[in-house]
Design a protein that fits this description.
218 residues; alpha/beta; 5-stranded parallel sheet; 47% helix; binds adenosine-5'-diphosphate; binds zinc ion
Length: 218
């Protein structure tokens, strides 16, 4: 099954995508994670995108499309993929349609996670992740079972994203409303859009997502 999780920064895309991958084996493809890995490795791509990401603006469409089109046909996507953070512009969505058609693939569902801007700022300011395995947490909404120890791997070091601060968040939200929200009518017209109340608890959102994709996991 091939899915898109669509929603503003902090809506819960990464949280839900990680669960879907773990439970059903669809591969989570996060363009944000790929770009951060490129920045960390210090190569040409990383150098090109670092300043853009630090400001909270969108990376050029051609860079992103090149990155993702190779990825969706890799062997680990055989059982399906979850696009997390892509597409983010209408040109990216058109490019995705072309790539999928060329490869004989299709999208099953586009799931919108709907969250108010004020809540997003609180989510993003409280977000952190395990430095070893990337598992994601929140200062108040999702704490590790044992304080300071990652539930998933036992790691004790955590990191916060450089762009997860109030100033940059405003730019990222503007990019979402201006450039990404037009994807909602784009996919609605194609009959594959479903919307979920992303303000509900992580578990309640997961349940709704399961319903949309016709699964009944825990
Ligand atoms: P996105 O990938 O859309 O930017 P994340 O999945 O990283 O969003 O979630 C942002 C932050 O909010 C994380 O710290 C996460 O633990 C927390 N979070 C995710 N979903 C919910 C939810 N339904 N309710 C409360 N907090 C949530
Ligand atoms: P969030 O989880 O908060 O939605 P991401 O991790 O998806 O944020 O993205 C972080 C940054 O990476 C974005 O602010 C943007 O600069 C860049 N980025 C990620 N995906 C895309 C994309 N599809 N198109 C353009 N820029 C992107
Ligand atoms: Zn961990």
């Amino acid at each position: 099954m091939n899915l898109i999780l669509l929603g503003p920064p902090g809506a819960g895309k990464g949280t839900q995508a990680a669960r879907l991958e773990k439970l059903y084996g669809f591969k989570q493809l996060s363009t944000g994670d790929m770009l951060r890995a490129a920045v960390a490795s210090g190569g040409a791509l990383g150098k090109e995108v670092k300043a853009i990401m630090d400001r909270g603006d969108l990376v050029p469409d051609d860079v992103i499309v090149r990155m993702i089109s190779e990825r969706i046909t890799a062997p680990d996507c055989r059982d399906g993929f979850i696009l997390d953070g892509f597409p983010r512009t209408v040109p990216q969505a058109r490019a995705l349609d072309r790539v999928l058609a060329e490869k004989g693939l299709r999208l099953d569902h586009v799931i919108e996670l709907r969250v108010d801007d004020a809540v997003l700022v609180a989510r993003i300011s409280g977000r952190y992740a395990c430095a070893s395995c990337g598992a994601n947490y929140h200062d108040t909404n999702r704490k590790p079972r044992v304080a300071g120890v990652c539930d998933a791997c036992g790691g004790t070091e955590f990191v916060r994203r450089k762009d997860d601060n109030a100033g940059v968040v405003a730019t990222r939200l503007k990019a979402y409303h201006g450039q990404t929200a037009p994807l909602l009518p784009y996919y609605r017209e194609r009959g594959i859009l479903a919307s979920v109340d992303g303000m509900a608890s992580i578990e309640a959102v997961a349940k709704e997502v399961d319903q949309i994709i016709g699964k009944s996991g825990k």
